[in-house]
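Take a record:
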Amino acid sequence: MNANILQTPIDYLKGVGPNRADLLRKELGIHTYQDLLNLFPNRYLDKTRFYKINELQRNSAEVQVVGKITHIRSVEQKRGKRLVADFIDDTGKMELVWFRGQKWIRENLKINTPYVIFGKTNWFNGLFSMPHPEMEPVEEYKKQLRTAMQPIYPSTEKLAKSGITNRVINKLMQQLFIETKGKFYDTLSEEITSELKLIPKAEAVFNIHFPQSQELLAKAQFRLKFEELFYIQLQLLIKNMLQKQKIKGFVFEEIGQNFSEFYKNHLPFELTGAQKRVIKEIRADLGSGAQMNRLLQGDVGSGKTIVALMSMFIALDNGFQACLMAPTEILAIQHYNGLVELCENLDTSIYLLTGSSKTKARREIHEKLENGEIDILIGTHALLEDKVKFKNLGLAVIDEQHRFGVAQRAKLWRKNQVPPHILVMTATPIPRTLAMSLYGDLDISVIDELPPGRKPIKTVHRYDSNRLKVFAFIKDEIKKGRQVYIVYPLIQESEKMDYKDLMDGYESIAREFPDKQISIVHGQMKSDAKDYEMERFVRGETQIMVATTVIEVGVNVPNASVMIIESAERFGLSQLHQLRGRVGRGAEQSFCILMTGHKLSNDSKTRLETMTATNDGFEIAEVDLKLRGPGDIMGTQQSGVLNLKIADIVKDNDILKLARHHAMKILKEDSNLSMEKNKVLRFTYAQVAKHKNIWNYIS
């Protein structure tokens, strides 16, 4: 048999033809037999048999159970009520749940009457439940014809209108198995399959499309999800390994004068355990001889800058220069002022280069940089200009890396014969599952403790009807000498509307606080006007800053203790968290007040509840991931890596960790996959690397 049969264009499959082929290509991206095979069902209708409650599996299938209702009750929830019925058979108990149509349902349900129920099960708090089940008394059911277990495939309106129904896809799948005789190479080693008790590949592929039982379907899903995630992790880990082998880095063996003097005599506060751990990880990288590529994650205010500075001291102690690149001028200036203050009693020369630097200052910087008089250069994109030449750049720190494109980062690499070590910092917490999938080729360090003495920000949700109380609270805080941010949403589609919102807000604040100085900052202002207003607020000349989200990443004003976010329901979770991080920079108690109207969607409620419940950025990021999905969070440029066929990195978090664990274990023992027992992994990996996501092979 032709080993490449799966690469056959879909047009040649019996029952397809040119018109259907065209539609399948455009609507579902199915170009080959391979693509059709990888079109996995969304769900299954199982009317082949009745399940006992103790036989139910935690998978995404729909099932049929016979039993009777013993008790019905209404349960209060945050909004309205839900109707819950206890449903039993002779093996156990489950719950039936209704959120709509409760009055009619309650009137028609019969206690202790045998029913056939059909629907999708959820597992929660140790109990299965079935929301809005299809129900029929057993007597009625016996009169109906029964259908078999049936896969339901993804579809589109256009396909349905053109007659390519679920039944047609099902028939095409049957034809595909006839033509390929359903024989597939096993793509995982015997060691993995026996250790994890995985079913063979051919059996998994067959049962995902034509499940013979609930149990086999669960095993098929697990096997295929594991395999998909395993090869993604293998690719990322090998990329990381090759990078370390191929790209040599400077060896920083010295921990000398700069580092020791600062650590012993000038550190403004005791480092947290997390900061010490991260510095240790960075030191190990810098001394390894391979180029460091490390992502440093830490919540707003967790002390990433100190870690960056101490890493730069290691470069200086080994005779190299360092640079720090920030996405905006305000942030670059803030880093510069912060580092100059930390180093004021040290002999460290720190310079600032931004788009606004005057020609004379630029000339001086260019000259001193090339002859090695500058130790640390801080700046914006201006650092990437060809004229900016270092004598010997050893470490480049990039702040808020998602603001810089790949090409811009690559320019930094070329600032030296041997690429400098790279430390990427972000205050946007990335959920661990996503970090493992997107940045699996970077080493990741996390600062998960706040410095001592920082008080957690108190966050509350208030409705517009409480506005007068909120104004009274602001007045009290200003009396204590504090400053206040009031932020309005910015939605690209409607800059005019946002501007109006902001100006209306500004006018009502000015009326309410006639004796106070107010700064205003928005996206339509020129940069110098924006900077001027920001500076007034930083210096304490204005007490209130009315702004759009331009202040999301930016100024550090320890005296600002209140953040009011207007129309908070219009913001995403990560944005709300970033904005809240603008306060809480000083020793005083800080507050974040989320203002909304009364009409809120369920997602908005979840976001507001999450914000008031926790200050932990990683917890917030996990909720955000569940609400929005990986593609939205990472933006289109990076979500391509997660073009998954069957796995879901949110729901299959445990399988992802398992896949990464096994990939690491194998590469530790056999980094080139050259052992006989890993032969099948080497072959499959070569195919995957070539075709990106092909992992079915005909035997």
Remarks:
- DSSP finds 25 helices and 22 strands in the chain.
